[in-house]
Design a protein that fits this description.
Length: about 650
């Protein structure tokens, strides 16, 4: 029989291992980081004759899956164990035992350990799991409660299951899990544990890590213990079972881990910040002003500048939700400045109007997938310098997403070319960067993720259906990668002004801007667009209005747009239709050039944009003439994109 007096409330750390009394019976528990120690906050050794009603609720009598939870099937065996029986009743009903600590012990974080001996008969499974009172709630992922299956033993072939569930059990239900195989499960007692901390869940079998996950966010609320048997076909045919059978639980113990803080996944080597190598996270000068304001409370404005991956209700929304949960005293204000199909070039032109006018404290820049329109270095540095000039205390974080074409390079430790360009700029300006693609590439290489497929594939997690845009699970991985990078930057929270060094690119786009088409000189055939009634403009109204913001149209060839500007580069947003739309452009009396404007989607018209050839710094005049229009179409012109300024 065990003696509670032998269980120390402050565990002794030796060789970074938790050392428990009664070592001959209890396998080694999980290792702890150097400097951490465990303090027992709750336990039950199951000594005595009856289950302690101050600690446990006995489930039943009630229908549960393919059988009944019966109160009589949960009892102490008098040998220091909780016995959860599986029985066949006289009426043919199958009964099992289950207990929980709901309302009696609920706790957040820590190391949760149970020592159990699994049953041998088929048709029912034993489980040690944690539940929260709001697991059924949808919309906040697992932060308001996660079903944490520390161990489920459904089969008798040496297969154990660990999983996390969130967002209820209906159509929004999400689950991630793993299976662990070891024939030794079927013999004798073994320990099963989860270390739940603010960053992740780490699962153990007999003191050895078997799985860790950050999926579904991490529960931030107290949860209670459930120990149970359940009848179901998942575990085989109950009719073949020789009953009674039982699961024995030697003890359940819960520890708070104190000292050095929660363990991190893989302790990374110091970054070299090498632009030619790929790393998940590079802190550089961090985000000190953001964390200073988050810590102080009050309004904190976080802007997201990027393309369709950021425009989606995915990593952006999930990251904002995390900030709100992590810093409840701060008022988190999201600035969604993402436009589908745009890269850093278009971003440089609109960052002033779409982001800086809203006075952000942090700007996330997501441009690697969509590129820079041939102006990669100039446009990225232009965005950075515009932000720093507007407010030296605004923090910036580069976010690198992934598409299928980047996969092999990232798996080889190499960034895409545009990534190397951005890393060089990040080094110069001390900007942190987070490569979301590194984790995706690692999982695909390890065959724990399918990069491109439709839906779930034989239980395997799928990242994307089109090779670029993540589905829900992919966005969750993106968010989790951002979050663990945020944790690494949190300690640096002393506000400071960021320096503005000399530009790397003499002609970087730090004076890029947009202007309404009415700033140009228009020939007589142009008419204002009515966004509310125009069928073409409304074909993809959200994106179109973000790019054109009104504008004009004409329905015959020969009409002209004349723009005088001082600077280097001129562009225009428009709506191409069909495959015969052509523009004739004359720059500063140079020989005219022809630009073809092709509709890129057959089923609907999409707004696009283009740039004229870059010119030497100075004053220029461009005449854009409608050369040809497909029958029945009009040419739509929206905003001027200018590196410089429009002249009268």
């Amino acid at each position: 029989m065990k003696h509670p007096a032998l269980i120390s409330s402050a565990l002794v750390i030796a060789s970074n291992l938790l050392v428990m009394a009664d070592e001959n019976k209890s396998p080694e528990l999980p290792p702890l980081p150097t400097g951490q120690q465990g303090r027992m906050v709750w336990n039950d050794e199951f000594d005595g004759k009856e289950l302690d009603p101050a600690k446990w609720n006995i489930q039943g009598d009630q229908v549960r899956k393919g059988g009944m939870w019966l109160k009589k099937c949960s009892l102490l065996d008098g040998q220091g164990n909780l016995e959860l029986l599986a029985t066949k009743e006289a009426d043919g009903t199958y009964g099992t035992g289950a207990v929980n600590t709901k309302g009696k012990f609920e706790h957040k974080h820590g190391l949760w350990v149970a020592r159990m001996r699994m049953p041998k008969q088929p048709g029912f499974w034993s489980a040690f799991w944690l539940m929260g009172n709001a697991v059924g709630k949808v919309g906040n992922e697992g932060m308001d409660g996660t079903e944490i299956d520390v161990i489920e033993y459904p089969k008798r072939d040496g297969e154990l299951n660990m999983a996390v569930h969130w967002d209820g059990y209906g159509k929004d239900h999400q689950v991630r899990g793993t299976r662990h195989f070891d024939k030794s499960f079927t013999e004798g007692f073994h320990t099963y544990a989860v270390h739940w901390n603010e960053k992740e869940y780490v699962f153990y079998y007999d003191g050895k890590e078997v799985w860790r996950t950050r999926e579904g966010m991490i529960s931030r609320v107290p949860q209670y213990i459930i120990l149970s048997n359940e009848v179901g076909s998942w575990a085989g045919d109950i009719k073949e079972a020789k009953l009674p059978d039982q699961c024995l639980i030697d003890y359940v113990r819960v520890y708070d881990l104190e000292g050095a803080g929660p363990p991190v996944a893989e302790k990374s080597k110091p970054s070299t910040n090498d632009p030619l190598s790929a790393e998940e996270f590079r802190a550089r000068d961090g985000l000190p002003n953001l964390f200073a304001k988050l810590k102080a409370g009050g309004p904190v404005r976080i802007a997201y500048l990027g393309g369709s991956i950021t425009a989606a209700e995915g990593w952006r929304v999930k990251t904002t939700t995390w900030f709100k949960a992590q810093y409840p005293k701060a008022e988190i204000i999201e600035i969604n400045a993402a436009i589908s199909g745009t890269g850093s070039d278009y971003g440089a032109c609109r960052v002033a109007s779409d982001v800086l006018e809203k006075k952000p404290d942090l700007v996330f820049m997501e441009h690697r997938v969509n590129g820079g329109g041939g102006f990669e270095a100039k446009s990225v540095e232009g965005i950075v310098r515009q932000i720093r000039k507007a407010n030296p205390q605004t923090d910036i974080c580069l976010i690198y997403t992934i598409n299928e074409g980047m996969l092999k390079d990232l798996q080889a430790g190499k960034p895409p070319r545009f990534g190397s360009i951005m890393e060089t700029i990040a080094n110069t300006y001390g900007i942190p960067s987070i490569d979301l693609g590194v984790e995706i590439a690692r999982r695909e290489k390890a065959k724990t993720l399918i990069f491109k497929a439709k839906g779930w594939q034989n239980g395997n997690l799928v990242f994307s259906e089109d090779g670029t845009h993540p589905i829900e699970a992919g966005h969750a991985i993106y968010r989790d990668t951002v979050v663990r990078s945020m944790f690494q930057m949190m300690p640096d929270d002393q506000a400071k002004a960021h320096p503005l060094p000399q530009p790397l690119e003499p002609q970087c786009w730090e004076n890029a801007t947009t202007a309404p088409i009415q700033k140009a000189t228009l020939s007589a055939g142009w008419k204002p667009i009515d966004p509310a009634t125009d069928r073409i403009y409304g074909g993809n109204s959200g994106r179109t209005h973000q790019m054109l913001r009104g504008g004009v149209k004409c329905d015959q060839a020969g009409e002209t747009i004349t723009v005088k500007w001082s600077g280097t580069t001129l562009g225009l947003s428009d709506i191409p239709q069909g495959d015969g739309m052509e523009l004739e452009v004359t720059l500063d009396q140079q020989p005219p050039i022809t630009l073809k404007r092709l509709q890129t989607e057959k089923k609907q018209t999409y707004s696009r944009f283009f740039y004229l050839p870059e010119q030497a710094p100075g004053e220029h005049t461009a005449v854009i003439k409608i050369k040809s229009l497909p029958q029945g179409t009009s040419y739509y012109a929206g905003q001027l994109l200018i590196v410089g300024k429009v002249m009268p």
